[in-house]
């Protein structure tokens, strides 16, 4: 097992963009599934002690995921993700916006671009997040790096567990 996996998190405030690169000690197919299947996303997609709950997900171009991150006291923070481009096991893009429980969006949102590659059983995921407004970027960064780092740790643990099952 490789314990020296890359994790890089950079912010370009002028470009209103966040760049994240993370390696996982798992095969490409498993990592792709973890990012694109609701039943797996719900197992890692929120920083503890919060949890993720997908109301519905239709992973196809033009499809959407509507989900919530739920705090231990039951407070729900909803978001809508629209899949704008999908190249299986290589790339997908989506537009992400927070919303209320009825899918009424809070604008502005952000464009997410995920790229996947595998070498020597290590899968690298590059994520680029472009924010429509500088204010949204500033708001996002308040807790985003800590929270996203925690969710990726959840994913690493899930992938280890799933890899041992197969």
TrEMBL record:
Q: Where are the transmembrane segments?
A: none
Which CDD domains does the protein's record reference? SRPBCC_CalC_Aha1-like
Pfam families associated with the record: AHSA1 (PF08327)
Span of domain Activator of Hsp90 ATPase homologue 1/2-like C-terminal? 28-159
The chain's coiled-coil residues are none
At the top level of its lineage, which domain of life is listed? Bacteria
Record's InterPro entries? ASHA1/2-like_C (IPR013538), START-like_dom_sf (IPR023393)
Q: Which family does it belong to?
A: Belongs to the AHA1 family.
Q: What is this protein called?
A: SRPBCC domain-containing protein
